[in-house]
Amino acid sequence: MEQWIEGKIVEKRRWSDRLYSLRFEAQVEPFSAGQFTRLALEIDGERVARPYSFVNPPHDNLLEVYFNEVVDGPLSPRLAALQPGDNLWVSARPNGFFTLDQIPDSENLWMLATGTALGVYLSILRTQESWQRFRNLLLVHNVPSRDHLSYRDEISTLQATHESNFRYLPITSRENAEGVLNGRILAALEDGRLERQAELTLSAENSHVMLCGNINMIKEVSAVLVTRGMRKHRKKEPGHITTEKYH
Ligand SMILES: Cc1cc2nc3c(=O)[nH]c(=O)nc-3n(C[C@H](O)[C@H](O)[C@H](O)COP(=O)(O)OP(=O)(O)OC[C@H]3O[C@@H](n4cnc5c(N)ncnc54)[C@H](O)[C@@H]3O)c2cc1C
């Protein structure tokens, strides 16, 4: 049976209209970057729980999640209403296989995110292992508009620390913004803009690709990667594609 422990909100950030981060204290079991926990609140006498990836690296004491308030969703609007000092339920045991120990070595690691899936990569990028194992790490973040490009300070710190081997590639789909790619990851990959912007190629020979977030992005982009000779990674049959669906 799932074991729940009580957590306490320490900090709340509101990034834009419906985008939030919560930092909280809870004595969960040790986790690996890329894993998720489950958060829950009592709603009308019932404990309503949903999975959320850790944004913080495993060595941080404070836990953090990044999420959007889904209008009419049972849990996320209630999470968005929490304030510092409030309590929430946190599953004691972390979960998930979207972690570097499940990923084979390659020269380049492409991390593709839609929306709040950015968070899981911030946890991974703030571990030593990621910088030791891959020559280049590329973070591709697809959002509707620039105001959804959260965590710019944390990303700037990564850029400053790993100047030559980190690429941050934001893409806005509903706004033509200067200095970022416009459209969707799928189109930017298909027409070559993504690789031109990165000044690196994405091939079965040199890359592993992680995809996280919206199921349509994951399906469509994976299909393009397959045409490049890449395949889903499995322990028994190593490949080049690792995915985690949020919705
Ligand atoms: C392994 C895993 C990890 C996850 N990690 C995160 C995370 O770190 N951050 C996060 O924001 N969400 C994450 N999610 C989604 C999250 O668990 C909830 O589904 C989401 O917060 C909405 O909860 P809800 O109860 O309000 O609505 P739900 O009943 O869960 O969903 C209502 C509707 O909202 C859609 N939806 C769910 N999540 C999103 C989203 N992120 N953006 C847009 N539409 C969505 C669903 O497809 C559904 O149609 C994760 C999901 C999984 C399976």
Kindly summarize this structure in a few lines.
By secondary structure, the protein is α/β, with parallel strands linked by helices. 22% of the residues lie in helices and 34% in strands.
Break the fold down into its secondary structure elements and pairings.
Elements: E1 4-16, E2 19-25, E3 36-43, E4 46-53, E5 63-68, H1 76-80, E6 87-91, E7 108-114, H2 118-125, H3 128-133, E8 136-143, H4 152-161, E9 166-172, E10 181-182, H5 185-190, H6 193-198, E11 207-213, H7 215-227, E12 241-245
Parallel strand pairs: 7-8, 7-11, 8-9, 9-10, 11-12
Antiparallel strand pairs: 1-2, 1-6, 2-5, 3-4, 3-6
Bound molecules: flavin-adenine dinucleotide (FAD).
User: Helical proportion?
Assistant: 10-25%
Name of the level-1 CATH class of the largest domain: Alpha Beta
Which architecture name of the largest domain does CATH use?
Answer: 3-Layer(aba) Sandwich
CATH topology title of the largest domain? Rossmann fold
Could you walk me through the main structural features you see in this protein, from its secondary elements to its overall organization?
- It is a single chain.
- The protein has 247 residues and is an alpha/beta fold.
- The chain has two domains: 4-91, Translation factors (Elongation Factor Tu (Ef-tu), domain 3, Beta Barrel), CATH 2.40.30.10; 100-245, 3-Layer(aba) Sandwich (Rossmann fold).
- 22% of the residues lie in helices and 34% in strands.
- It contains seven helices and twelve strands.
- It has a six-stranded antiparallel beta sheet with strand order 4-3-6-1-2-5.
- Helix 4 links the parallel strand 8 (136-143) and strand 9.
- The mean pLDDT is 97.
- Bound molecules: flavin-adenine dinucleotide.
- Residues 36, 50-53, 65-68, 70, 73-76, 115-116, 119, 244, 246-247 line the site of flavin-adenine dinucleotide (FAD).
